[in-house]
């Protein structure tokens, strides 16, 4: 779609219909007047526009559309196309489309759509894992949404920035932005209960992580005040938050009661992922209590639910089971599940999970006093972790490798201890 002035439209339409200036003018006006109109050198009356629209088979509304109006319509459609590209995971096409939209927005001062483009760029950066760039784009879009007083979009920006900070474990920053989002909600007089519940759940979670259980409970109480009748997802969220608060204060039995209630709801809905999350959390509860058998039992349930999905929940439950079997001295069973975990990690090309499973192999052989094979597996882990650029894990592996060499090579023991200690010092651990 081209963005044309009135004169450019008339000239284009006339040529498409193979009309001369004289033929378009007819008995109404002169060819010279048409020429002036086509060069935007002359104004026209509404009656003349009706005449020209009839001759050219277009509406008067189309002829009257300004370049700004056309650019708004064009960019609206291009933005929709970009959203489709993003949802279809065609990121490069989406970026190209957004760049074109931005150039049009700058030319015609389309504030609202300029903000939308930055919001979409932020979404793309989130997909790419570029959290810092995503926050920058959200902040840019905020500037334009505030200018345009677009409350809904302002809320989304604050909410998304808060979510990024929450993912990065910057919980104070997350809470600040969630609070801004709540202010916008109240100003907008939005009454959608689920929006408030989601927001309060996130704030409560952040306070749990900041070890401020009372503030977390305050927001859980706010959720409880809302009408959640018939909305099982929100009810589950509240129960899980209450359970997590109990966990953080060491009230394991009370936590389990809340988890059981959440499970009863989820089992009715057959929500596999949320069900697995609950079982994994219960498993973690028993691990903190030192009950390895119960830890294994609930990890096994989570694994049975997710074993065909090969996602993070599957691998986490599998790793729990391997850890439990090692603690129980069931090394052959642990090895069997290590084999499954390694195959899944290689298939999904997840190097971190591959490292996790290989480390379990090392733990098995170490527990069986087969230090030579344990060393081989720790060395494989080091090769992987060096590529992951995780200094803390790498330092731990060097220290463990030094320990394994303590009975066979004092030279290598000292070498790897020194490497680990050097890294700990750089991380300010020692």
Automatic annotation (TrEMBL):
**Which is a Gene Ontology cellular component entry for this protein?**
cytoplasm
InterPro entries for this protein: Bac_ResReg_Asp_Phosphatase, Cro/C1-type_HTH, Lambda_DNA-bd_dom_sf, TPR-like_helical_dom_sf, TPR_rpt
- Top-level division of the source organism's lineage: Bacteria
Q: What is its main location?
A: cytoplasm
Q: What GO annotations for molecular function exist for this entry?
A: DNA binding
PROSITE patterns documented for this protein:
HTH_CROC1, TPR
Keywords from the UniProt entry = Cytoplasm, Repeat, TPR repeat
**Domain HTH cro/C1-type: where?**
10-63
Task: Output the Pfam families linked to this UniProt entry.
Answer: HTH_19 (PF12844), TPR_12 (PF13424), TPR_8 (PF13181)
Spans of TPR repeats, please give: 236-269
Protein localization: Cytoplasm
Q: Which family does it belong to?
A: Belongs to the Rap family.
Query: This protein is called what?
Result: Tetratricopeptide repeat-containing protein
Supply the source organism for this entry.
Answer: Asaccharospora irregularis DSM 2635
